[in-house]
Amino acid sequence: MSATAKRIAIASLFVGLAFFPSLFAEVCTVDDLDMYKWLAGSEPSLKELFFPNVAGGTYYRPLIGVSYLFDKYVWALDTRLMHLDNLLFHLVNAILVYYLAYLLLPRPERKESMVPFMSSLLFGLHPVTTESVAWISGRTDIMACTFVLLSASFLFKFRETRSIPTLVLAPLVLVPGLLIKETPLAFVLGALWYSPLLFVKRWMKESGVNEERVKDTNMAKLFGLTFILSLVASFFLAMFIGADAGAGSGALAGFMAGLGWVFTFMGINYMFERKTLTHFLINSLYSVASLTLMGLIIGIWQ
Questions:
Q1: Sign of the CA dihedral 80, 81, 87, 91?
Q2: Any residues with CB less than 8 A from the CB of 23 and at least 6 apart, and which?
Q3: pTM tops 0.90, yes or no
Q4: What is the pLDDT of residue 301?
Q5: Which end of the chain is more exposed for a tag (fewer CB within 10 A), N or C?
Q6: CA distance 266 to 257
Q7: CA 47, CA 72: separation in Å to the nearest integer?
Q8: How confident is the model over 176-226, as pLDDT tens digits?
Q9: Per-domain residue ranges for the chain?
Q10: Contact 97, 153 (CB under 8 A)
């Protein structure tokens, strides 16, 4: 067994042992009890899940319903096995985090570096994941995360290989994620905006960035800090939006914050830095679109 395989196995073992007690957790009264009663007292079909006939607004998350059908007809609604579904998806995500961190490292450092192992452990054992793993209905977060991590892995694999099939797979694997929860929309925007399909070549030209400079970038540091700053931005936007916002008001608040503050201040910087108008529009409009989408997701979440 290779060193990489051993590290993945050890990380998976630690995560599995940490969350093993969740298999015997009770059914949560928040959502799980209603979901369990619905499954036990009805015969939902795939048609009803993908084409719901509802008068009012609701979440459109058909693949979560498919996972519940699996629990009903395969696991016979055994709550231990329903909890097991969550744990298995969480283990898959911990392995994908390992692989993603592995791809972010420069090639010469990959075999010896402990960064992928520590990243996988940090993700897998972090207390913030406890709710999603132990709460059966919380699998929306876990399963959506699986497809976001898969898409990111394909994107970084494309960066290495320039394989067109790999690039095509990146957005395709996000589709199931969007049928599980709305949050992958935020990843779709960034992945497409700064991709060969849209503006990355023009952005690189306007920024004076070439392929060699990109290859020399510490990607683990870059995306780690990007993730942290995005969390900070979403936290303060959520405070600005408030607890009672819906999808429409959340999106409007995000748009107003992006256009009224970010776009204008970036415009001031643009004039003093003497950057091109194209460079300014690519970056500033992405910020406006990103905050609008972030506000939409926060509004739906609340």
A1: positive
A2: 80, 83, 84, 87
A3: no
A4: 65
A5: N
A6: 13
A7: 16
A8: 988 998 777 777 787 778 877 788 888 888 888 777 776 667 766 777 777
A9: 1-181, 183-302
A10: no
Residue 67 tokens read as 């996972």
In three-state secondary structure terms, 173 is coil
Helices (H), 112-257: 115-125, 130-134, 139-161, 164-172, 174-178, 184-193, 200-207, 211-215, 219-241, 247-257
Percent of the chain at pLDDT exceeding 90: 34
Whole-number Å distance between alpha carbons of 258 and 290? 8
Are 35 and 143 within 8 A, CB to CB?
no
CA triple 133-294-122, angle to 5 deg: 35
Cα distance between residue 89 and residue 126, in whole Å: 15
The span from the CA of 64 to the CA of 140, in Å, is 7
Contacts with 180 (C-beta within 8 Å, 6 or more apart), sequence order: 61, 63, 64, 140, 143, 144, 147
Residue 57: its pLDDT value, please?
56
Q: Which two tokens stand for residue 101?
A: 């961190």
Tokens of 64: 């979560």
Looking up tokens 């392995």 gives 95
- Concatenate the DSSP letters of all residues of 231-284 into one string: HHHHHHHHHHH-TT--HHHHHHHHHHHIIIIIIHHHHHHHHHHT--HHHHHHHH
Closest CA to 46 of 64, 33, 31: 64
Name which residue leads in pLDDT, 162 or 99.
99
Amino acid at 156: F
Q: Which band of pLDDT confidence, cut at 50, 70 and 90, is reported for residue 55?
A: low
Q: pLDDT, tens digit, for every residue of 170-183? A: 888 988 988 998 77
Query: Phi first, then psi: what are they for 100, rounded to 5°?
Result: -65, -45
Position of tokens 């192992």?
Answer: 117
